[in-house]
Amino acid sequence: MASANRAFPFELNLFSPKFYSALQLFSQSADRLHMAALHRMPALASVYPVPTLQANRNALSPDVWLSGSSAVITQLRSQIHRIAPHFRTALLTGERGCGEVAAAHILHQLSPRSQYPFVELTPASAEVRFDAQRRIPSVSSEGMFYLPRPERLSPDAQAALLRLLRERGSQAPRIVAFAERGLRPLVATNGFSAELADSLGALRISLPSLRERSEDIPEPLTQLLKDFASASGRTPPQLAPDLLDAARDLPWPGNFLQLQSAVEGLMEHTDQPLLHASDLQSVLGAVPPAPPVDRTEVRMISLDDVIQEHIRAVLYACNGNKLRTADILGISRSTLYRMLEAQAAHATPPHALEKLQMRG
Q1: pTM of this prediction?
Q2: In a domain, 306, yes or no
Q3: Labelling 134: which of 47, 238, 339, 349 has CA 20 to 30 A away?
Q4: Which structural domain, as residue segments, surrounds residue 259?
Q5: Strand ranges for 234-321 from DSSP E
Q6: How much helix, strand and coil, in percent to the nearest 5, is found in the chain?
């Protein structure tokens, strides 16, 4: 992650568009330099590893994600097992945090190229892999490219992916992309390649949110508790029926990310052998469910307000865990603290999301 402790040559409001653009520019530049150094000196990788979702100790296990017996997850399991041996590209859609990385891993594991590595192709790593000469490197050793942020790929990287699909055919790595609302909206609003959008979107897999499969929640919740307890050398607590009922009724706007964070909170803040709904409530905070947002409605608000809303929403989904929030936002924790302080200094009365007790 790029350090945010940099001296700006001009005065900036922390929530101004200029500040946000500058912050993104610094972060992306540092990522590109890091990837370029590792590309030229592979030995550095053992000292300065590139952060990936796979390396995250909280990465969601495919088995946990697919657990449950609801109609929606049963249908999804069937769809994945049916298409995995045959697909070349696939587009995952749905809310972020609903299991998109786990879905990509399952598609890779069941594909004919499962013996080759799963590669998460971030915008920074794509710039190195598909260099300025638009060279298509040897990809025979790659099993799958996963694109978590296809909308941020440069035009050169998009063109290289298209050539890869055309020239290597069935010998090319499988490519799976995730875009919450699909790629076609990006063609009109973000200058995304229409041809690449069509190629990646030929096979579309819609991932359900956690609240759309609420009856499944006890199974991943129980398994996550067992996994966390095992990793910390503890005996997993039992879950009382009232806690399971409460978990089913919660909206979980942060999906599995929020569920994992709740499990961490339960394990860190109690050593009781039997957990009740009150324990879950104390971890999540007394926060009323946020009203649903109509994503098709254009809200006439400033960019500053959009940034502030997004920071609050991610912080809420992480149950107030600022370290994880900063990691997801792609900024340092000190930058997040400064943004929250600036926000508090200029804020109107606190939003319900800010009532959550924050764990720094």
Answers
A1: 0.65
A2: no
A3: 47
A4: 210-284
A5: 238-239, 274-275
A6: 55, 5, 40
